[in-house]
Write a structure and sequence with these properties.
Blueprint: H1 7-12, E1 22-23, H2 25-34, H3 39-44, H4 47-57, E2 70-71, H5 95-105, H6 107-110, H7 114-117, E3 127-129, H8 130-140, H9 146-163, E4 168-170, H10 171-178, H11 181-192, H12 202-212, H13 217-233
Antiparallel strand pairs: 1-2, 3-4
Helix pairs in contact: 8-9
Length: about 230
Amino acid sequence: MAANLTALQLHVAFWDYNNDSIITPVEIYRGFRDLGFCIPFSLGGLLINLFFSYPTTLGHSWIPDPLFRIYTDTIHKAKHGSDTGVYSSEGNLRLMLFDELFDKMDSTRTNNTVENSTLPSNGRDGSLGVGDLFRLHAKNRVAADPAGWSFAAMEWWTTWLLLQRDGRVWKEDLSALYDGTLFWTIREERAKNGNLAQGYGWRDWLRSLWKYGTWKTWEAEHKDTVEIEVETEL
């Protein structure tokens, strides 16, 4: 069955818990909780049903779904403007555009500063920091599309919160997110490791502010590591 699904359908399949090609508000909430998001954030995820139920319903009826369900077979109809274009209008993945996204927006490739040269790579190929994501969002904004701007901002914010490592979204993780495999992996790892913390949460924010005076935990910890190495060498 998976062979007949588009990349966008595979991306949302994680939330279809009973495999009926329909995603209910309860399933959206449950999915976010399984990924490690807190209760308030998961409740906020119900906006997905509010805004994207009707576009997917149009493939079946002109009448809005009173239960705000999302139909996965027509999920491509919920594709909005001001996005990256990595998904085509049919929901297929455009790998060339995905690669170009990192070639053009990854500041560690386009800006050879001392700060970027000391950034831990974790053995990964390409990454996007907070500043890169802001520039990407600004680049993709098209005129008279406030809805698209808002949806894109919420999607990248959620993506960063879920995926960030050392403050950056890594290419291999984002690739797995686009095809949906990452969601299953995270849920399985959290189940095995006692709901292992994932990404960046409010506890990280509070701890970083208390300990370092900044929300950018990764920068403070990297600075501490460098200082310790220097002291050791001396």
